[in-house]
Specification:
Elements: H1 3-40, H2 44-70, H3 73-96, H4 102-116, H5 119-130, H6 133-187, H7 197-201, H8 206-218, H9 221-252, H10 255-279, E1 281-282, H11 287-306, H12 310-320, H13 322-338, H14 344-355, H15 359-377, H16 387-390, H17 396-417, H18 420-423, H19 425-428, H20 439-444, E2 449-450
Antiparallel strand pairs: 1-2
Helix pairs in contact: 1-6, 2-4, 2-5, 2-8, 2-14, 2-15, 3-4, 3-5, 3-6, 5-14, 6-10, 6-13, 8-14, 9-10, 9-15, 9-17, 10-12, 10-13, 11-12, 11-13, 11-17, 15-17
Length: 456
């Protein structure tokens, strides 16, 4: 009777540790972002940072999923923290020596990204083992609060830390939070999943197992189709995250206001997480939360690109991440309900791989498009056709990029949602039923109320 409570305590311990580590990472990331943009005045370097952060996700996710399923998942997460801490040490010495160059940042981000690839599948598949079905949606909603909570706290701390100890101090704090996270992860217990027939069919060499997640999805074409659409969505919207700092700085001209507005954006994400945690969802209805949520998200992105005044910017940036938390939490719960726990590492790794497939291209394009095409076009004769939408001031070019991304997101999602196999995906795809579950539980599985979680 005490084991579920013990496991829930472990889950919340991991979440609190994740928030603590994310605060350090966001403090150093914001400090470095401000430094780089002030030094260069361009969005391209920030876009390249995101490019080098996502490439390992696309290339190495298969192997990371195998490790998450083969070995103790806490060791996999601790290895990820140790590798990222090592990268932070290298970046610290680069700034402390006074010889910092942009390629140092790109290299360190790439190294850290290689290790962070191993963390996602291990953590997401651990949730299934720590949280009972009846509480999983709410737990996934809580998980969605980790990043935004850190995102609210970090900008406030970053301004103070950046002014007091500069970039090197911010990086040192980030390094310490990684070490604390690693120590905590090594002290918790995460149960190992029971072996299933599906897991046995996908077992073998590392190469065979690394392909197992893709074989699983290939046999479930509607789910694969949904993931490919998510990949397109991340291509359309991924650049908006990269452009957020230069966009807000261009529209407001204030670093202090940047911190306030980023805090508002993360408050929106927290609001979405709280909403789905309180309201929850029911099986066979999650797809009808996910797809309309993406449509609403596209509309909010359009509104953000059109915002030319501070109040409108604040409202739209707050609303932007409200549906993201709901979509992500719901999607995670859907996957955890359908996939056997002993193969979740491999499947979640491929899910992440497909979701990020087109993002490197987005990051390569969005910086040059903003710096060399859209921003220089602001105020030109041809620009007057779109000036009523986004204005003629600095930042309007980036605003138009956001508008185009939002429109394409909405239109493409309406088209995909109209496909019957996508609309009926949740009802048609059977839930995973543990071997020890009795027949009555199996019969009632489709009607058990649960809550929501997901990953775009």
């Amino acid at each position: 009777m005490n084991q579920p409570k013990h496991n829930m305590r472990t889950f919340y311990t991991l979440i609190l540790t994740q928030v603590f580590s994310l605060i350090g990472s966001k403090v150093s990331g914001l400090a470095i972002g401000i430094y780089v943009f002030n030094q260069t005045g361009d969005a391209t370097p920030l876009a390249l940072v995101s490019f080098f952060a996502v490439v390992p996700q696309v290339l190495a996710s298969g192997v990371s999923g195998v490790l998450a399923d083969r070995y103790d998942r806490r060791y996999v997460m601790a290895l990820a923290d140790a590798g990222q801490a090592a990268g932070t040490v290298l970046l610290f010495f680069s700034f402390a020596s006074g010889d910092f160059q942009l390629w140092h940042l790109y290299g360190v981000v790439f190294i850290q990204a290689i290790f962070s690839v191993f963390q996602g599948p291990a953590f997401m598949s651990s949730v299934t083992m720590l949280v009972p079905d009846s509480q999983r949606d709410r737990a996934n909603a809580v998980q969605q609060l980790a990043g935004p909570t850190a995102g609210i706290i970090a900008p406030v701390l970053a301004g103070t830390i950046y002014g007091a100890v500069g970039v090197t101090g911010a990086i040192l704090i980030d390094m310490l939070t990684f070490l604390v996270a690693m120590a905590v992860v090594l002290r918790v217990h995460i149960p190992r999943p029971e072996k299933t027939a599906e897991g046995a069919a996908l077992s073998g060499s590392v190469w065979k197992e690394s392909l197992g997640g893709m074989r699983y999805l290939w046999a479930r074409r509607p789910l694969l189709g949904l993931l490919l659409h998510i990949s397109l969505l991340n291509f359309l919207m991924g650049g908006s995250g990269v452009l957020m700092t230069p966009y807000v700085l261009s529209r407001t001209g204030s670093e202090a206001m940047l911190g306030v507005l980023l805090g508002l954006m993360n408050l929106g994400a927290i609001t979405g997480g709280l909403l789905i945690g309180i309201v929850g969802g029911r099986k066979r209805t999650r797809i009808h939360i996910i797809m309309p949520g993406v449509i609403v998200l596209g509309c909010f992105l359009v509104a953000l690109g059109m915002s030319q005044h501070l109040i409108a910017l604040g409202i739209s940036i707050f609303l932007l991440l409200v549906p993201v938390s709901i979509i992500n939490a719901t999607f995670l719960s859907l996957l955890q309900a359908k996939i056997a726990p002993d193969i979740q590492g491999r499947v979640f790794a491929v899910v992440g791989q497909l979701a990020m497939l087109l993002m490197p291209l987005s990051f390569l394009l969005v910086g040059p498009l903003a710096d060399q095409v859209f921003e220089p076009a602001v105020g030109s004769p041809g620009w007057q056709a779109v000036a009523p939408l986004v204005g003629n001031s600095t930042g309007a070019g980036i605003g138009l990029i956001l508008v185009v991304g939002g429109v394409l997101t909405t239109v493409s999602t309406l088209f995909v949602y109209a496909i019957p196999s996508i609309r009926h995906l949740e009802a048609d795809m059977p839930d995973y039923i543990p071997a020890h579950a009795d027949s009555d539980a199996a019969e009632d599985a489709g009607d058990t109320p649960i809550e929501a979680a997901a990953v775009i």
